[in-house]
Design brief:
There is one protein chain. 53% of the residues lie in helices and 0% in strands. By secondary structure, the chain is mainly alpha-helical.
């Protein structure tokens, strides 16, 4: 709803900055300016691309036999 704050917390403590940087990197690559005055489609495209890339990374790690530590450990 309008005016609500995001209360989601990263699974890995301290990953907020890395996730924020990742978000803006993806937005820049997609040519999207994030903000409350943008459409849900524009803002959501960034989150969707972030998810897609994190899943690809996890799949690569699993395929190569790299152990993923508890809590994810992908954004360290």
């Amino acid at each position: 709803m309008a005016g609500e704050r995001n209360t989601n917390q990263p699974a890995v403590q301290g990953a907020e900055r890395a996730l924020d940087n990742f978000k803006y990197e993806i937005a820049n690559q997609l040519g999207v300016t994030l903000g409350g005055d943008r459409t849900s489609r524009e803002n959501g495209s960034v989150g969707g691309e972030m998810t897609k890339r994190m899943i690809q990374l996890a799949e690569q790690q699993l395929q190569s036999g790299t152990r993923i530590p508890p809590g994810g450990g992908m954004m360290r």
